[in-house]
Specification:
mainly alpha; C4-dicarboxylate transporter/malic acid transporter; about 350 residues; Glycosyltransferase; transmembrane; SLAC1/Mae1/Ssu1/TehA; cell membrane; transmembrane helix
C-alpha cells in the first residue's frame, strides 16, 4: 500500500474526470439513440451506468488514499504542490467532484446528494487554484519550455463550476441561492479571465518553444476542455434565466466554440500521431488527459445539436463519444497494466 501512497501522483484524479465525463457522454448518446429504438439505446445506457458506478468507486478509493497521504506524507504533497508542472494536477481532485456532480445531474440524481459533492468540489477548486497560482507567481522555476496546456487545469478548471452549479443555484432559496449564484459567476468569470492569459502563454510555447512530446503529449488535447466547458457553463447559466431568446443567442456562441474545438481536435490528433510514429508517446498516467477533453467536446456537441435542432451534429457527437470511449479504454488498459507490473507506482523524475 505504501508503495502507492507516498509517490501517488495527483494526476490520478484525471481518471475519475475521464470516467465520469465518458459516462455523461454515453448517457446523452443513449437519449439520442432512443429515437432509433431501445435495442440501440439500452446497451449504451448500460455502459453509461457501469462507468457511473466505476467513477464513484474510483473517487472513493483515490479520495481516501489522497487524504491519508496528506496526513501521513504531507512533505511529499507540499513538494509536489510547489512543482511548476506537477502541482497543476492537484486541481483534478476537486474538479473530478464537479464533473461527477454534472454527470449525476444529467442522470437525475437527487439535488440533496449532488449539493455536498458540488460545494466541496467548487470550494476545493477555488482553494487549489489560489495555492497553485500563488506558487507559480512567486517562483522563478517555471520556464517557457515547461509550459503546456496542463497549466489550464487549476484556474481554468473554475469554469466547470456552473455546469452543475447553475441548476443547483436555481433550485436553492434565500441566502444559499445567493451564495451559490455568486460562486457560479465568480468561478465562471475567473476561469474565462485566466483562460485568455494562459491560452496566450501556451500558444507562445507552441510557436516559440520545443514541440510538446513524450509523456506530455496528451496535454495537447487539454485545449479542447475550456473550448467545450466554457460554452456548457454559459448555457447552464443562461437556462436559469428562463429567457428563451438569451438561450438561443447563447447556442450560437456555443456553436462557435464547438467549431474551434473540432478544429483543434484535428491538430491535436495530427500531433499525437506524429509523436506516436516517432516513438515519443510512452504510456503514462498523463494518458487520462486524452479522455476528459474529448468527452466534454462530445457533451457540447449533443447540447448544441439539441438547442439548434440539427440533424447531422448528433452523429458527430456520437462519433466523438466513440472516440472518448476508445481513449478511455486505452488509458484504462495502460493503467491496469501499469498496476499489474508496478511500473505506474514508480516516482516521477
Amino acid at each position: 500500500m505504501e508503495r502507492f501512497i507516498r509517490p501517488m501522483a495527483p494526476g490520478w484524479f484525471a481518471s475519475v474526470m475521464g470516467t465520469a465525463v465518458t459516462s455523461l457522454a454515453l448517457t446523452l448518446a443513449s437519449h439520442a439513440a432512443a429515437d432509433a429504438g431501445p435495442a440501440l439505446a439500452a446497451p449504451v445506457a448500460l455502459a453509461a451506468s457501469a462507468l457511473h458506478w466505476l467513477a464513484i468507486a474510483m473517487m472513493s478509493v483515490l479520495g481516501i488514499a489522497a487524504v491519508y497521504r496528506l496526513i501521513r506524507h504531507g512533505d511529499a504533497v507540499m513538494e509536489q504542490l510547489r512543482h511548476p508542472v506537477e502541482g497543476s494536477f492537484y486541481a483534478t481532485f476537486p474538479i473530478a467532484m464537479l464533473v461527477m456532480a454534472a454527470e449525476w445531474t444529467i442522470r437525475g440524481v437527487s439535488p440533496t446528494l449532488i449539493a455536498p459533492l458540488w460545494w466541496t468540489g467548487a470550494l476545493g477548486t477555488f482553494a487549489v487554484s489560489y495555492v497553485v497560482l500563488f506558487g507559480l507567481f512567486t517562483s522563478e522555476r517555471l520556464k517557457l519550455g515547461m509550459v503546456t496546456p496542463a497549466h489550464f487545469i487549476p484556474a481554468v478548471g473554475l469554469v466547470v463550476i456552473p455546469v452543475a452549479g447553475a441548476p443547483l443555484a436555481a433550485a436553492s432559496e434565500g441566502v444559499l441561492r445567493e451564495l451559490a449564484f455568486a460562486l457560479n459567476m465568480t468561478g465562471f468569470g475567473a476561469g474565462v479571465f485566466m483562460y485568455v492569459g494562459l491560452l496566450a502563454l501556451t500558444m507562445a510555447r507552441h510557436f516559440l518553444g520545443a514541440p510538446v512530446e513524450g509523456k506530455m503529449t496528451p496535454t495537447l488535447w487539454v485545449h479542447l476542455a475550456p473550448l467545450s466547458v466554457i460554452p456548457l457553463s454559459m448555457l447552464a447559466l443562461l437556462k436559469t434565466t428562463g429567457d428563451a431568446s438569451l438561450l438561443r443567442y447563447g447556442s450560437l456562441v456555443a456553436a462557435a466554440f464547438l467549431g474551434a474545438a473540432l478544429w483543434w481536435l484535428v491538430l491535436a490528433v495530427s500531433m499525437t500521431i506524429r509523436n506516436r510514429r516517432q516513438g515519443k508517446l510512452p504510456f503514462a498516467l498523463s494518458w487520462w488527459a486524452f479522455v476528459f477533453p474529448i468527452g466534454a467536446c462530445s457533451v457540447l456537441a449533443f447540447r448544441v445539436s439539441e438547442l439548434l435542432a440539427l440533424e447531422v451534429l448528433p452523429h458527430v457527437a456520437g462519433g466523438l463519444t466513440l472516440l472518448a470511449l476508445f481513449v478511455w479504454s486505452a488509458a484504462a488498459l495502460g493503467t491496469a497494466r501499469g498496476i499489474r507490473t508496478g511500473a505506474i507506482f514508480a516516482p516521477a523524475h
